Amino acid sequence: MKVLFTFYNPSGGMETLNRIRSKALIDKGIEAHLLYNFTGEGLRNIKDIRTIVTSDDESVRTLIQQENYDVIVVCSDINMLENISNSSYTGHLIYELQGLGPIEEAKLIVDNYSERILEHADAILYPQTLHLNQLMLSYFPNIPQFSFDDPLDTEHFGYHSYPRKSFPILGWIGRIQANKNWREFLTLGERLMQYCPDLFLWMFVDKTLHDPIEKAAYDLMVTNSPQLSTRLFLYSNIPHDTMADYLSIIGDSGGFLASTSILEGFGYAVAEAMLCRCPVLSTDSDGVRRFVAHNQTGKFYERGNIDEAVAEALSLMQDQNLRTQIIDNAQAHIKREFSTDLYVERFMNMKQHLDYKSPKKL
């Protein structure tokens, strides 16, 4: 069996997802390849997985014809879906949605793509996220749909012990763009410094993918804040393996990871922090509900309510019994519910269902 996963560029959560699930399938004896339209910093994370980078339609069609994939999963890229469908491909062509930004933008995208998805896709795949589920059932009631959790590398990515920092760290992972809601993170950091004057902020971003307008606003906000300009560190394109070290250090410092997103399809940053024993304070951005149960595996606050965010943050930092309980529960939850073995089992069940319902085209 041979599988191809495609996306625009190797960055962020999609790079993580494609790399983890490809490796998991390969470990089970299934050949998996990656196809990206454009190069990206995330290519450095990929090892021992055949990865093709091209945006040329003819090159893609040649690849499809040569490799004879049993399953191709196209994430988000409607033009790629159409190109592969028109290339005389005879395997199962699955259109995947992982996250489309704010709900208004997501509805607009799905509305614009719906006819082409119906024409070219054999099935739709998405994580167990309420807003995606509602959108897909509303727009595509008659096409096979599969919804299951994305995997984490629970065996190799996790907590590492380092000497404890002498100051607490507030962490954040994302892109400098509106949906990630970076302004709220910086505002929370400034407020928390009033209670924790030795607090530092660590932000992990991909500088090659920021929104220029948002980045200009970010630079202005940081420059105009005496606290942020001296206590904020911006890290770009940290290798994925090394992120486990940073998350472990943040957790052991007495700090936490803040997730301020407006809407998430899955939220790898949150899940990976929990796996590394770094507690999480998050907005209720839908996708993270799979990980965060308030005061059990993490903490929620109402987006925009900075007073509530500060109160929950201080509770997470000062109530050591609750903190330890949340950290232990979160790590166990991720290991139990999001393993690669579970993902491969569900992926193969999807393949078998499609084999039965819609055998390969002749």
TrEMBL record:
Protein name, as recorded: Glycosyl transferase family 1 domain-containing protein
Domain Glycosyl transferase family: 168-332
Domain of life: Bacteria
GO molecular function term, any single one: glycosyltransferase activity
Pfam short name (any one): Glycos_transf_1
